[in-house]
Amino acid sequence: LFFYLQEVVSEESEEESNGVNLMEFSDEILLHILSYVPCTDLVLNVRRTCRKLATLCLDKSLTHTVLLQKDYKVNKDKVKQLMRDIGKEIYQLNMAGCYWLPSSTIDHVTRCKNLVKLNLSGCHVTSLRLSKMLSTLQHLRSLAIDVNPGFDASQLSSECKATLSRVSELKQTLYTPSYGVVPCCTSLEKLLLYFEILDRSREGFMLSGQLMVGESNVPHYQNLRIFYARLAPGYVNQEVVRLYLAVLSDRTPENLHAFLISAPGSFAETGATKNLLDSMARNVRLDALQLPKAWINGSGLLQHLKFNNPFYFSFSRCTLSGGHLIQRVINGGKDLKSLTSLNLSGCVHCLAPESLFRKAEDDIDSSILESLVVSCCNLRHLNLSAAHHHSSESIGNHLCQLLSRLKHLLSLALPVCSITDVAASVEKPPTTPNLVPQTFGRKVRIGIQTYPRNLGDQANQKIESSVFWALMGSLRFLETLEIIGSSFSSAMPRNEPAIRNSLPPCVRAQSVGDSEVAAISQLTYLQSLTLAQLPNILTGSGLINIGLQCQHLRTLSLANLGMMGKVVYMSALMDMLKHCKCLRDLRLEQPYFCAGAQFFQALSHCSSLQRLCIVSRSGTLQSDAVMSFMANCLEVIMCHMFMGESLTVCKNLQQSIVRSFQAERPALNVVIFPLLHEDLTEVIRDVPMRHLDEITLFKSRVAEEPPNLWW
Q1: Rounded to whole angstroms, how far apart are CA atoms 383 and 342?
Q2: Rg (CA), the chain
Q3: One CATH from 3.30.460, 3.60.70, 3.40.50, 3.80.10 for 23-149+158-169+182-188
Q4: What is the pLDDT of residues 488-517, one digit of tens each?
Q5: Phi, psi of 325 (to 5 degrees)
Q6: What gap in Å lies between CA 506 and CA 349, rounded to an integer?
Q7: Where on the phi/psi map is residue 298: left (φ > 0), alpha (ψ -120 to 50), or beta?
Q8: Number of helices and strands in the chain (H, E)
Q9: What gap in Å lies between CA 398 and CA 403, rounded to an integer?
Q10: Cα 66 to Cα 109, 112, 591, distances in angstroms
Q11: Taking CA atoms, which of 263, 347, 495, 635 is between 20 and 30 Å from 82?
Q12: Where is each F-box domain found (predicted)?
């Protein structure tokens, strides 16, 4: 845009235009256009093109909030100049995930005397630098920081603590056992805690969840309205979060209306947490709730909790039955018009009347889903993944038909077996390719039937009459879609060695393939798509139609499609990529994936691509093709490849990429490593949290946390 504006201004004086040129637009229209330009470009480049733009680029509507969190081209010098030019005009500054900036960059934030909101998550900030910076920000009310090993609260000055005492919103990511700055924040209304503490040090020593000496100060929760804690795997994280919760169990804040704890695996309930929940049941009315599964399973807690106007519920991985869901949560279908986000991921019995004698693969009770749809008619985010939701043969009661009534949905996650037509899954035997065992054994040569690659041919066969086709047609404004096999697990879980074997797909999912993928192309406004463990992919032809029709697609994640011993959709994927001009993030997980010259040549058409992650057991790559791709795609700042190549090949390629492109791409993060190497977990721990959480690790992200939890 900068160079275009320069050209417009220079040509304006040389020739008359028969139409209206850009500079003749009203200030309101120009300000709207300029709002899409990164602030660094506005202040440091665009405003130098002409007098009119020089004035507009400094308009308060453009300088009030400065977002640097995904401006991967920003460096220390640009930040310094930006703060010098407009520091006093900035009221909200977001530098989240700017891991490449040196810690000294934070010193320039002191120029922003009027800051009200500041996000430094993912930035390198020491205790002393934090103290110096906060001492000057007297108007600050919202803060997000990381607490790393070596953090010492005793180094915070009295002026810094005075600023913290006025902070009402705090987001704190912990990489070491600590209270961080929480005890200093005596006016907290919103507290978000992310626990990323590892159980072992780099030297292999077991870590303790005990807080450091001098950190016995008690947090102040009396004004707390929102408490959110997300735990990474590990017992140390559980130990530390219990220390934060201990104060809440003594006295529950009267104004608490959102209580959310996201904990993987088993997080046992204790006497203190039971007292906390009992106190909440007596004294507060909640609008948002998420609890570890052990705290809900087998208890009558939900029967006693009171809700006001709930907007978010998460019962992920709980054994909550549909009967309890209807009776105890939505009051028999009442009072949930306010609910906008619901996470039932891994809640295997949530659509069945009871769970005592039910098998996970049994058919769902459509009346429960219908009650849910009717009472939660304003849902915008719904996650039903990681479970077997099998519809019965009753006409009009298929899960897809019932979900089509939710016209406000923006994001949706479903298991693969839930989208199949019942008649097709019962009457149609699996195709020949699916008779091949889903294991990583020796390749088996088999015949594959001729299959049409044209969407029109597919439509004539079955697609337009399927319930999934109708669902996609009814959710035209859907922005995020995840279709994930109920038994799928990524080959690269967190803090553990790579998984060598995968579970076979659900029997009901055997018929889901190219035609269902083609149905997704109806989603004109789709921005993020995840497809995992679709066993009947034969050519991947539906991907081409998605590339042609879904022109807003920014994030694409494909995993274990079709046969496991061969990448059957490679040709279609390459055709698709040629049309994905807006694609920014691409994640591919597939055994035996060949990242060669043809693939990278097709990928080079994705001119907006910023992040690439490939996970492939026994996968191969061509180093020259990777280097050529990196040279052609100037926006790429993350390249993660976990393949079957040797450690020497991986290290040499990684070093070559860093040497060639790091200077001109300050945010460049490259990790190329053998997937099954014993040191993989050590390599993973050095990946910036922004990339690790958003793309490198596979997970369902629909309704993962409440909408607009943080800015």
Answers
A1: 6
A2: 27
A3: 3.80.10
A4: 999 987 777 776 677 899 999 999 999 999
A5: -60, -45
A6: 16
A7: left
A8: 26, 22
A9: 9
A10: 12, 11, 42
A11: 635
A12: 19-66
Percent of the chain past pLDDT 90, that is, above it, reads 72
**Cβ-contact 706, 286 below 8 angstroms:** no
What are the residue ranges of helices labelled H in 550-646? 570-577, 597-603, 623-632
| Residue in 255, 259, 264, 254 with CA at minimum distance from that of residue 277 | 259
**Angle, CA 231 vertex, CA 93 and CA 674 arms, to 5°:** 90
In sign, the C-alpha dihedral spanning 383, 241, 299, 333 is negative
CA distances from 147 to 130, 229, 260, 689 (A): 11, 15, 21, 13
Within 10 Å of residue 602's Cβ, how many Cβ atoms?
Answer: 19
Model pTM?
0.92
Q: Count Cβ atoms below 10 Å from residue 596 Cβ, excluding itself.
A: 15
Q: What three-state secondary structure class fits 599?
A: helix
- Residue 431 to residues 305, 390, 446, 458, 693, Cα–Cα distance (Å): 50, 20, 12, 16, 36
Rounded distance between C-alpha atoms, residue 181 and residue 172, angstroms: 8
The answer to whether 547 and 581 have CB atoms below 8 angstroms apart is: no
User: Which amino acid makes up residue 268?
Assistant: A
5-42, pLDDT tens digit by residue? Answer: 555 445 444 444 455 677 888 999 999 999 999 999 99
CA–CA distance, 479 with 409 (Å, rounded to integer): 9
- CA dist 343 and 703 (Å) reads 5
Q: Where in the chain is the domain with CATH 3.80.10?
A: 23-149+158-169+182-188
**H/E/C letters for each residue in 133-170?**
HHCCCCCCCEEEEEECCCCCHHHCCHHHHHHHHHCCEE
Using DSSP's 3-state secondary structure scheme, residue 108 falls into helix
Among candidate residues 29, 51, 53, 23, the one with its CA nearest the CA of residue 41 = 53
Q: 365-374, 418-427, 518-527, 547-556: which has the minimum mean pLDDT? A: 418-427
E-only strand ranges, 304-380: 306-314, 341-343
Backbone φ and ψ of 54, nearest 5° = -60, -35
The answer to whether 175 touches 149, Cβ cutoff 8 Å, is: yes
- CA 468 to chain centroid, in Å, comes to 25
- Give the total residue count for the chain: 711
